[in-house]
What does this fold into?
Amino acid sequence: MSDDALFPLELLQPEGHDAGPRLIAPGAIHVPGWLTLEQQRWIVARFGEWTQGPVPLRAATLPGGHQMSVRTVCLGWHWQPYRYTREATDVNGRPVLDFPDWMVRLGRKALEAAYSPGDEGVELDEVTSSLSGLANQYTPDAALVNFYNDGAAMGMHQDKDERSSAPVVSLSIGETCVFRFGNTKTRTKPYTDVELRSGDLFVFGGPARFSYHGIPKVLPGTAPDGCGLSEGRINITMRVTGLS
Ligand SMILES: O=C(O)CCC(=O)C(=O)O
Ligand SMILES: [Fe+2]
It folds into this structure.
């Protein structure tokens, strides 16, 4: 018997990679293994350019004086606790890079994959499938590109500095993390812990748009070969700010 027959490729993929979309809460979908390794490497190369851009990666300081452990570079609009500005006034005052056209297209594809998954087996509730109409008009104008290393984590929070209730599209590359996805009322239970691996897509919109969420931990040493990152985790969240 050939090696091919003994070890079909799908058995070598990390668990869940080919499992298809999963409904986490109405409006919140996890799509494992959405980006190919080639796409991941290409995005990691763009990340290298963004961090050499006008505004470097920086760990934001919260109003109480606490500095976040995650470092972020922004596209389109600069996020600082707790508003969006065109210039990175809390870093070096320079205007942030434009939001790339390719990322708008990717955002639309992401909503399609999440909310119109076709015959991939996921049962969407009525509310979630009603969000499928959002895909072709979705025009994100801000991305927070987060980099986690050395034990970085992110506390439970809502993404609520936007003046739009359009969905948030989240992409993960590099090390696996635990993504805690909660409810819209409190930062505590009930929540669901989801492992986000390199290449995974997560979309939260509709009734899940203002749910609390956070990253309790990143699992060191779990970045897959060929993703473009040997350590750490990149997360991109695209948003519609509703600002002009
Ligand atoms: O790293 C993640 O997956 C989540 C990031 C996040 O929640 C945020 O940037 O607001
Ligand atoms: Fe967030």
Observations:
- The longest strand covers residues 142-148.
- The domain at 17-239 is CATH 2.60.120.590 (Jelly Rolls).
